[in-house]
Amino acid sequence: MALFPIYSKREEGRKSIIEQKTLVQTLNLALDMERCTGCGICAEICPEEAIVKGPLGAVGFKEMEVPEMVFDQNKCSYCGVCVELCPFTALKLTENGEPKTDLIDQEGFPHYLKVAEINLDTCVRCKVCEEMCPRDKAIERNVPEVTERQQAVTYTAEMQLDEDPGSENKCTYCGLCGEICDALTVEHKEATPINIEALGEVKFDSTKCDGCKICEEICPTDSIKIDRTISEAKLQGEVTINKDECMFCTWCAKTCPIENTIDIKKIFEGSINIKTENCPAGCSACVEICPCNALYLPPQHEPGEIAAKLEVNDDFCTLCGACVNVCPVANTIEVKRDVIHIEGTETELYKKTAGKMMELKTPTIEKLGT
Amino acid sequence: MDEEKRIGVFVCHCGTNIAGVIDVKALAEYAKTLPNVAYAEDYTYVCSTPGQTMIRDAIKEHNLNGTVVAACSPRLHEPTFRKATEEGGVNQFLFSMANIREQNTWVHMEEPEKAMQKAKDVVRMEVARASMLEPLTAKTVPVEKAALVIGAGIAGIQASLELADAGIKTYLVEKEPSIGGMMSRLDKTFPTLDCSQCILTPKMVDVERNPNIELMTYSEVEDVSGYIGNFDVTIRQKSRYVYEDKCNGCGKCQEVCPVSRPNEFDLGLQPRKAAYVPFPQAVPLKFTIDMDSCIKCDLCKTQEACGDLEAIDFDKPDELVTVKVGTIIVATGFDMYDVERKEEWGYKVFDNVVTGLEMERLISASGPTGGNVIRPSDGQKPKSVGFVLCAGSRDQDEEDGAKPYCSRVCCMYSLKHAHQLIEKIPGCVPYLFYMDIRSFGKAYEEFYYRIQNEGGKFIRGRVSRITEDPITKNLTVTAEDTLLGQLLEMELDMVVLANAVVPAESTQKIKTLLTLSNSPDGFLLEAHPKLNPMSTTTDGVFLAGMCQGPRDIPDVVSHAAAAAAAASIPIHRGSVTLEPIFAIVDQEHCGGCATCIGLCPYGATELNEVDGKLVASVNEAKCKGCGTCGSGCPSGAIKMQHFTNEQIMSEIEAFAQGW
Question: pLDDT digits over B293-304, tens only?
Fold first, then answer.
């Protein structure tokens, strides 16, 4: 009846936004569909029960669409609990365009303990983690492009040239080394009849030396010695984990070639249990939806072997529950969270919420029209 | 009954109301021919003092023991003639009234002969009934020295203060968290431009302080039983989830609350928290938690917030309180017409079309913008503002739910808005599109002149359409200037729809509980529109303020004071006389079947064990004399006093004799 409040819902690109607007305040809760995996945690925990799981999108190979989360703009209290509990940081709450975080700022609700660190001392800045990460933007690898290999690593290089007149290895300034290497330049002094010896100077540019020591080998008089020390046996730059993007699946940590370099802690501890007797082989919806690539259809190793229908690698499962929501058959997958790692005060609201999150989740099939 | 019946018939001319249609003298002569009639006479105004004296004298002179007056509806003058009969020395319940005006000469004036025939029938029937009437004794019951006022807007506040000052314990029930009602939303009041809050707040504080007033906010009347003098009222005190005795109104709970919901008090123009008071001057200044939007994060309960006060309890239940009162005043106020239904004006479609009440909040210093009038679309100050008067009033369009009546406040508050805009925004021109400017109150017309002089533009014509420029969000108003006789199109920055006042939705429940009626406009029906506008047809229940019809603040206050005076009379008198028109159970014949228990709409029948047998009885005070139980009783054990089977049958027989 009145002009305000205005409740509305809109799509902006891949963002689904609900709004409560009064004359002086606009509250927006935006769901980023690029990030949402349809895990349904927000619907489980909304204190106002303002979020429900919508219908599942098209199921097709590599065309998996997540179940759309439907937000009720009228019921929502715009409190921000869902924003905190979305393991995929798919939700943003803003007040007049600025992030609204008063619930967390005042310690009215804890937040996930997000541990995802790369030890930069041991990390060699290789690309394995970036390639393994199931999510595109979680690994931030800021490593300068190697255009000249001499500059790829940090080093010091020194050249020693034997110019002792009495030495049998004295440099003859023949200039051979200069011909084959950019780091060396041989300059001859003008020849005079007084001195029939070749005189000159060998210049060394340490920034161009890559320590290959070809000059040592080629020198006819063995006059050159190269001493190159690599101070850091790694590429330059930094590789870090963006915690807003990270799903804490531990793929990077488990695949990192250097031990104890990546420290990731999963948000949930618990178990996932697949009852393959119920699973209709070949549907693979869960495999498609799994944001962390933890589920897989095992290959047939030998002819005649009946492969298992579905398996899970517990190492990578984050217990998000997306597979449970997408599975079309009842009681095939059981996801049970036992521990939730949080930081901050365990408020009563949190305890109630955590209780809901720790209930056993398994697919239930609702018949239409019941 | 053994005594010979001697009935006097008095035929009233009612000026020409009756005598102008039928031959009253012939009617009196006819009456003389009827059985048991000892005397018949006609007179210009039987209700006048000489007329009443005539009845008195005739009783004595002709030794009458029953009277019939053929005149108007008993609604008005039955008490008058009963009294005259009693003064003549005959029991007042031996009087009967024949209505030959409302249901006869007024409606049959084109057919005087048939009207005469009908008048004869009615007189004959009433004489027959009067012959069967039995003397009855009116009963008096004590009156509880307390009153209930429902609704704490300015009407309820005024009525409560008057009652309390008259020494009467008053329960003031308000469904919202604070008292103050609609008036607390207003900025200034016409025509004197007093700040509404400034004149209202002292009264609100008085209510809180008055020892005779028990204030029950966030409460609703759940049930009413009983009758004048002895109403039992059940009140639901909705849980605020805050203990009122512990809350000191510090507001720390509100500060920390992370929930943001539109504030109903501000018409959703600005947000409030889940823990809130509707406005800073609220009485009582006790916080309420809106459990519908509370997420129970407990921030309000922390040491930094409510802390040791421990005033907040999420599990606090609603409480049901029962009070006993002698009289009840209904002051449930009004709603605003849903002007969205008038699609031609684009309310809620165009950003810069607002209602009068929204303009009131925009213009209010305590409103969401601190009194800066802005266009909702871009926050800019409007330089030209159109006012559409009679937005839903004086409009016969039933499809849109518009109201045919004048809402009585819109002209004046629009004039006031016009004045405030001129004052607040230099160069701003208000354009008032009106049908007639109804500035009827004291100093109202002068205020109208004042706005004309200040530069308000008045265009006599109804706005037929408003359109919006999608880019500038300016509005183009189309109207006919009926004084110039030409069509007008005008681009304006903003438009205010002065929407009608309509009966409050919430009044419906109270109406049912108190068995009140409403007039065709939907407002509660008064006992008499002119002579008793503050009473109802339910004894002991009175009306104050807008629930009875549109009126401005001075009229509301007067009406409320009148209602309080009327409501205090039975209380101060200490007892009320009840009509002895109630059902009686002949317990010898009653079989205890309980049929009557289910039938009684007033809960007046009950089943008790007498001498080892279940029998029905009737609570005389609760019984309204409707007769439903009597007609349903399978053993004929229930007798309706004053409307016995014999009495009604005699009427029917008398009627049949004429045909």
Answer: 999 999 999 999
